[in-house]
UniProtKB/TrEMBL annotation:
<keyword id="KW-0325">Glycoprotein</keyword>
<feature type="site" description="Required for activity">
    <location>
        <position position="158"/>
    </location>
</feature>
<keyword id="KW-0333">Golgi apparatus</keyword>
<comment type="similarity">
    <text>Belongs to the RGP family.</text>
</comment>
<dbReference type="InterPro" id="IPR037595">
    <property type="entry name" value="RGP_fam"/>
</dbReference>
<dbReference type="GO" id="GO:0052691">
    <property type="term" value="F:UDP-arabinopyranose mutase activity"/>
</dbReference>
<dbReference type="GO" id="GO:0071555">
    <property type="term" value="P:cell wall organization"/>
</dbReference>
<keyword id="KW-0413">Isomerase</keyword>
<dbReference type="GO" id="GO:0009505">
    <property type="term" value="C:plant-type cell wall"/>
</dbReference>
<comment type="function">
    <text>Probable UDP-L-arabinose mutase involved in the biosynthesis of cell wall non-cellulosic polysaccharides.</text>
</comment>
<keyword id="KW-0961">Cell wall biogenesis/degradation</keyword>
<feature type="site" description="Required for activity">
    <location>
        <position position="165"/>
    </location>
</feature>
<dbReference type="GO" id="GO:0005829">
    <property type="term" value="C:cytosol"/>
</dbReference>
<protein>
    <recommendedName>
        <fullName>UDP-arabinopyranose mutase</fullName>
        <ecNumber>5.4.99.30</ecNumber>
    </recommendedName>
</protein>
<dbReference type="Pfam" id="PF03214">
    <property type="entry name" value="RGP"/>
</dbReference>
<dbReference type="InterPro" id="IPR004901">
    <property type="entry name" value="RGP"/>
</dbReference>
<dbReference type="GO" id="GO:0005794">
    <property type="term" value="C:Golgi apparatus"/>
</dbReference>
């Protein structure tokens, strides 16, 4: 049986790393009491809360946290017609927080994710581990069998080319989950009682040319390196699928990271995911995605970006053209999604003029 950590009595982390260079983005439809458990680790940081659903509802934020909160009215006011690219009634709305942030780093976490315990029983400061992952290089061009070579007590193994040991900048740190794993609805239905109790003490770079299913539950990234590609695709209200927002972003991000020579890591840190969402509701949301992805994955595996695409925005706009050309025949949704990808970049550049290509 795995349990969340008890963080009562842990002193506030006054020496919080990157305190003024990192925003924490939380999509929510609930009160944010879960922050109480994270207080020692997260209170020094600025929160960007993206309130989904009914904007007239008041979201309670525990005392002492520094935050800005955006509801649907705010998103519409700030983006005007471009707000159409931000999902409604789906956690995909969180990407609005990435866009309005002015910081170099983002950590995004769901409001049903708590502090995990490592095998020694120690509370896991997930944000601290994400920061370590992001500040350390990645090794996407050759797999190190002793996992993260830059970690204390590890290194590159024999046979690892010295020419590759400098590594590349890390754009994404993808954390994992104890207790409720991020399973798709069919798996949830078949294994309703399965809990993840396995704490694997490893961080790995996902090799170049390999895609992965990115979960937005416990995720950090370098906004300057890859922010414009972190569009959580059109889901929720009025859309034919849900729960593929982070997956879509992850596939676009990985193709672009591979093209630009950036690294994506997965593994530590773990959070404790407390709530299984309803598998039947999830099945309805995921249904089309489950068979569309059999075409989507080969599309991303074969997607080629031009050598002229040297910024994330240029890569992303090339990807959106390929989506329109190659995926729209599957369903008109992809035509709409390709357009939304362009709108996202326009909105991003409008709110972040300095990053315009
Ligand atoms: O309409 C909504 C529903 C939820 N949220 C917020 O999104 C976070 C995730 O919601 P929840 O924990 O209820 O769903 P899960 O099934 O566990 O979410 C996983 O799968 C879907 C996504 O990929 C998500 O990232 C995964 O964690 C939570 O903070 C809700 O408050 C929302 O904003 N709008
Ligand atoms: Mn959840």
């Amino acid at each position: 049986m795995v349990e969340p950590a008890n963080t009562v009595g842990i002193p506030l982390n006054h020496a919080a790393l990157l305190k003024d260079e990192l925003d924490i983005v939380i999509p929510t439809i609930r009160n944010l009491d879960f922050l109480e458990m994270w207080r020692p680790f997260l209170q020094p940081y600025h929160l960007i809360i993206v309130q989904d659903g009914d904007p007239s509802k008041t979201i309670a934020v525990p005392e002492g946290f520094d935050y800005e909160l955006y509801n649907r009215n705010d998103i519409n006011r700030i983006l005007g017609p471009k707000a159409s690219c931000i999902s409604f009634k789906d956690s995909a709305c969180r990407c609005f927080g990435y866009m309005v942030s002015k910081k170099k780093y983002i950590f995004t976490i769901d409001d049903d994710c708590f502090v995990a315990k490592d095998p020694s029983g120690k509370a896991v400061n997930a944000l601290e581990q994400h920061i370590k992952n992001l500040l350390c290089p990645s090794s996407p061009f050759f797999f190190n069998t002793l996992y993260d070579p830059y970690r204390e007590g590890a290194d590159f193994v024999r046979g690892y080319p010295f020419s590759l040991r400098e590594g590349v900048s890390t754009a994404v740190s993808h954390g994992l989950w104890l207790n409720i794993p991020d399973y798709d609805a069919p798996t949830q239905l078949v294994k309703p009682k399965e809990r993840n109790t396995r704490y694997v003490d490893a961080v790995m770079t996902i090799p170049k040319g390999t895609l992965f299913p990115m979960c937005g539950m416990n995720l950090a990234f370098d906004r300057d390196l890859i922010g414009p590609a972190m569009y959580f695709g059109l889901m929720g209200d009025g859309q034919p699928i849900g729960r593929y927002d982070d997956m879509w972003a992850g596939w676009c991000v990985k193709v672009i990271c591979d093209h630009l020579g950036l690294g994506v890591k997965t593994g530590l840190p773990y959070i404790y995911h407390s709530k299984a969402s309803n598998p039947f509701v999830n099945l309805k949301k995921e249904y089309k995605g489950i068979f569309w992805q059999e075409d989507i994955i080969p599309f991303f595996q074969s997607a080629k970006l031009s050598k002229e695409a040297v910024t994330v925005q240029q890569c992303y706009l090339e990807l959106s053209k390929l989506v329109k050309e190659k995926l729209s025949p599957i369903d008109p949704y992809f035509d709409k999604l390709a357009d939304a990808m362009v709108t996202w970049i326009e909105a991003w550049d409008e709110l972040n003029p300095a990053t315009k290509a």
